[in-house]
Amino acid sequence: MQSQTIDPAKTALNYHHTEAAAHHEEHPDHRITGLILFLVAEGMIFFGMFSAYLAFRSVLPSWPPEGTPELELLLPGVNTIILISSSFVIHNADTAIKKNDVSGMRTWLAITAAMGAIFLAGQLYEYSNLEFGLTTNLFASAFYVLTGFHGLHVFIGLVAILAVLWRSRVTGHYSSEKHFGVEAAEIYWHFVDVVWIVLFGLLYIL
Amino acid sequence: MTQAQLQEGANLPALSEEPGVRKWRDYFSFNTDHKVIGIQYLVTTFIFYCIGGVLADLVRTELKTPETDFVSPEVYNSLFTLHATIMIFLWIVPAGAGFANYLIPLMIGAKDMAFPRLNAVAFWMIPPAGLLLISSLLIGDAPDAGWTSYPPLSLVTGQVGEAIWIMSVLLLGTSSILGAINFLVTIWKMRTPGMTFNQMPLFCWAMVATSAITLLSTPVLAGALILLAFDLLAGTTFFNPTGGGDPIVYQHMFWFYSHPAVYIMILPFFGLISEILPVHARKPIFGYQAIAYSSLAISFLGLIVWAHHMFTSGVPGWLRMFFMITTMIIAVPTGIKVFSWVATVWGGKLRLNSAMLFAMGFVGTFVIGGISGIMLAAVPFDIHVHDTYFVVAHLHYVLFGGSVLGIYAGFYHWFPKMTGRMLNEFWGKVHFALTIVGLNLTFLPMHKLGMMGMNRRIAVYDPKFETLNFICTMGSYLLAVSTFPFIINAIWSWMYGPKAGNNPWQALTLEWMTTSPPAIENFDKPPVLATGPYDYGMSHGDDEEVEKVPLSDEREPALAAGPNSALRADPDPKVAAHPEDRK
Fold first, then answer.
1. Torsional sign, CA B311, B314, B318, B319
2. Closest residue of chain B to A47, computed from CA coordinates
3. Are the Cβ atoms of B226 and A29 closer than 8 angstroms?
4. Whole-number Å distance between alpha carbons of B187 and B523
5. What's the Cα-to-Cα distance from B435 to each of A26, B119, B361, B493, B532, rounded to whole Å?
6. DSSP bridge pairs for B75
7. Which of A35, A52, B99, B238 sees the fewest Cβ atoms within 10 Å?
8. In this structure, how many other beta carbons lie within 10 angstroms of the beta carbon of residue B583?
9. This prediction's pTM
């Protein structure tokens, strides 16, 4: 049984492509558990930053610091509504794929992606119209870093949704039996939404 | 798949008599086998330990005399900063993950980790992060604000070095978060059928507790470092008082990670010791559940005591009181562990081999570190000795006398399983003797130095401290020397050591029920667990009720029956007997 030549198709990596992949198809709940634990860790980053924000707020004599212009609420409010609605939209994609309705799933995902893109565009537009910059004062810095960090997560979620759409089109990857990608994108998207609700409350309303 | 196909798939020659033996090339590849990754972790982190040790000896050489006659104060700052960062983030924390990678799937009877490729990714983040950190020395702008990187100091010293430090620690943090997710899912979902949580080896319990705190606290450090990076590179002032920021907030966030991190650094080795003591004392562990649940208690309490590092930072009095009391409460679950270990060893038929010596050395020195920890938890005492060598002595007793001795004990205990060969006992004992003398010589006088008022992190000191510092420096050289017998022994034994057999220690946990080294998917079929772990010499009623799993022709996959089943399962009694028992 001595194999003398090295065949790149039989590398160590390749072995797990088959074995582990097969294993994971048998146990999709492992991956969901792993994803949820990952989101716990992500949530703790936001928790740390939010706590820091509240600490700055309590340490400084006035908040926001003197001379910070009032935040416009209309655009971020509309944006919030769009993002929260998109959570319901992406849930429809999950329901559709569980009924083996691939085209329905693609439609719902495409709508979610469009809504996410609108949210990001709206955030960039808001940035361009604000009267303070990153280093104006502590509130401004916290505003940009927190919303920017959240925006980065929206962007990652958007990429995930587009990746699911791409795989569905090119490889026909998803069905009522195999839909981990759709579910993962959905859970991630819900997470991004929940974080935004807390963030919106902290920065705009409180 | 048959073993031959698996071997071929993994690009290995299928040697029927040594199913798990790997080529050295495998250890330099992106391999997804948890055993390869575990050894990659252990060897890589040991290399970083040697680098960190050289830095420590440079620090001690500077401190041999009261003046700065060896390096400049700036270089001295970089040396101790890099020493601490490397030892914590590149040696002790990932070494625990290395043991966990190697042992968890074997101990719970799984084929591999839950996410093998994620596992490899987590490992391969470590070498670049380490090289990045060390490269800062070469460009002449190493981080020099201490391993805590407190602002505003870290914002005004070398900018490039500080940015490198942040990047490197962020990478290492990501790696340990990914590892923690993997351990939790593996232990949770992939135990062999029939294995309940209360039948898991104690190391798995320890890794559940460790992974939980990694998952909850490491991201907060990441958040702090992101804000610090903005302060450093983008001109914000989160932690910079000149722009209205608050450096104390950084301290809270930093210690919210870095206090639990000391449990990330010690809990895995509590687990290892709980594995090693019963095997070499030939007695069941005393208080299995107490040890298991005390790990969880430690991890919970560890998350709520961070501000005891900040008693001198101006936190309010009632807060100090809260953190003092919660910190002292941690002594309770820790004490439960120590008493259980002592009760395990008590009256046992001890085999004083290297693994056991290191394990008992661990318990002894860790207790000293633990007691000075309780002293430091008391606010008035902490204010008196804060940032003196007393703190340095305490943390080195815990991290060197605890974690590092635990790592060595684990090395000696599982080396036969990992390589299929025995380590040389004589040189193992020489290694132990040099280490234990060197460590006490180095760190014991530091208690006295701290009580006398010598500050840490300062290159110049009062000449009245010279004698004790000279002793510490000599001890640190002895510690450097002590690693050579180990390195030579490990390399030589890996290549030429006597064959170990499947179960050289007559242990009862599942990892000893497969071949040494284990074949690619560990067990032919899911192993069956008939008793709890560690039931040495215990009667478990009727053996006939237990279903015996037929042995395959090559290796025996299952712990088939109750007491002493490991002995009966081993095909070759000559190899199976313990080396000392063979005489």
1. negative
2. B220
3. no
4. 17
5. 48, 32, 10, 20, 35
6. none
7. A35
8. 6
9. 0.88
Q: Tens of pLDDT along B350-386?
A: 999 999 999 999 999 999 999 999 999 999 999 999 9
- CA A144, A146, A151, A156 dihedral sign is positive
Asked if the Cβ–Cβ distance from B114 to A30 is below 8 Å, we say yes
8 A C-beta contact, residue B510 and residue B108: yes
Chain B: nearest CA to A86, how far in angstroms? 27
To the nearest whole angstrom, how far is the Cα of A111 from the nearest Cα of chain B? Answer: 31
Mean pLDDT of B254-269: 95
What single-letter amino acid sits at A192? V
* The pair of three-digit structure tokens given for residue B383, joined into one six-digit string: 């204010």
Q: Degrees (nearest 5) of the Cα angle A71, A76, A79?
A: 175
Alpha-carbon distances of A111 from A87, A100, A153, B537, rounded to whole Å: 11, 19, 18, 66
Q: Tokens standing for A13?
A: 């990596």
* Distance to chain A for B6, nearest Cα, Å: 8
Residues 362-421 (B) with a CB less than 8 A from some CB of A: none
For residue A20, the chain B residues in CB contact (below 8 A) are: 32, 112, 116-117
- For residue A175, what pLDDT band results from cuts at 50, 70 and 90? confident
pLDDT (tens digit, 9 = 90+) per residue, B173-221? 999 999 999 999 999 998 888 888 888 999 999 999 999 999 999 999 9
Q: Which amino acid is at B8?
A: E
DSSP annotation of B90 reads I
Give the bridge partners for B455, in sequence order: B388
Q: Given pLDDT bands bounded at 50, 70 and 90, which one contains residue B5?
A: low
CB contact under 8 A, B6 and A15: yes
Tokens of B179: 């590892």
Q: In the structure encoding, which two tokens stand for residue B533, read together? A: 């772990």
Backbone angles phi, psi at B164, to 5 degrees: -60, -45
**Distance, CA of B250 to CA of B109 (rounded, Å):** 43
pLDDT surpasses 50 at B550: no
ipTM: 0.87
- Lookup: tokens for A196: 């935004």
For chains A and B, CB pairs below 8 A equal: 157
Interface test with A, best of B108, B112, B236, B520 (most A CBs within 10 A): B236
Structure confidence by residue, pLDDT tens digits, B413-468: 999 999 999 999 999 999 999 999 999 999 999 999 999 999 999 999 999 999 99
Report CA B40 to chain centroid distance, whole Å: 15
Average pLDDT, chain B: 87
Count of alpha carbons within 13 Å of B139, Cβ hemisphere only? 15
Cα nearest neighbour of B173 on chain A = A41
By C-alpha distance, the chain B residue nearest A27 is B189
User: Taking CA atoms, what residue in B is nearest to A6?
Assistant: B11
